[in-house]
Amino acid sequence: MENYSVIMSVYHKVNPEHLRISIESILNQTFRTNEFILIKDGKLTEEQEKVLDKIIKDNKSIFKIHSFEENRGAGPAYNVGIDMCTNKWAAIMDSDDFAVPEKFEKQMKYLSNHDDIDAIGTNAVEFLNDMENIVSTRIMPESNEDIIKFGHGRCPLIQPTVIFKVESVKKAGSYQESKLTEDYDLYIRMIMNGCKFYTYQEILYYIRTSEDFFKRRGGFKYLKPILGFKYKYYKKGFFTTGQFLKTACSSLVVAIMPNFLRTFIYKKFLRK
Q: Which of 175, 179, 225, 249 has the greatest number of CB atoms lying within 10 Å of its CB?
């Protein structure tokens, strides 16, 4: 199997213990990365620095560090990480999530036999506070055809589960400014470039969520950039008129409904 890089962006609001658990889940993989690119997105807390110093000291050979003086956001941080990659394959890892120990081995084994794939994700669960407190399960379409079809309505891959070809992401323009939709924006551009996708049909990733997750997906402040994003790709020809109206109306309805109902809709219909 080929080597892969891991890119992680950290900023000051991440819980230091969650950060430690997240990084260790990468270091404890059954097929370990040889290049862990850590982007410090602005000044970190003393507690975060202590966690990082200890981990890096014990794993000096694989870590590459880049620091921003001020917080610049996930997209710019990931782009720096992508430019620092020396491997053909790379993954984005959120700094408070957890990767199952066999995740990267299973994905890289699949890729070793399917070099035509440009990005491979997995299924995932979302948990609150404790990994045993699972609040929802995300089962994504498997085949390239079904993933692209799904992408005409919603984001077709779960970003922190994905391993991608660095060259394919660069050719698509890497991460670009797109409020709330940077990952979806990238995948649409990759689709329009002819990239191929696959979702490994196992739950290999745990996403940490929060009490206000569903609340933050309501209101005009959330709706405006979502509709603007979808209209942009309607004008570019990605969405047909029917697809645009369907996905725009769905976003509108979910955004304006009461939070208790939005929570129910997400858990019952938008998650498995």
A: 175
pLDDT tens-digit readout, 72-127: 999 999 999 999 999 999 999 999 999 999 999 999 999 999 999 999 999 999 99
SS percent in the chain: helix, strand, coil, step 5: 45, 20, 35
The H-or-E segment that residue 4 falls in is strand 4-10
DSSP annotation string for 207-254: EEE-TTTTGGG-SHHHHHHHHHHHHHHHHTTSS-HHHHHHHHHHHHHH
Exposure letters 201-211 (e unless 16+ CB within 10 A, then b)? eebbbbbbbee
Cα separation, 93 vs 79, whole angstroms: 13
Q: Are 72 and 80 in contact (CB under 8 A)?
A: no
Distance, C-alpha 264 to centroid of its chain: 23
| Cβ-contact 88, 166 below 8 angstroms | yes
At 37 the three-state DSSP class reads strand
Does this model's pTM top 0.90? My answer is yes
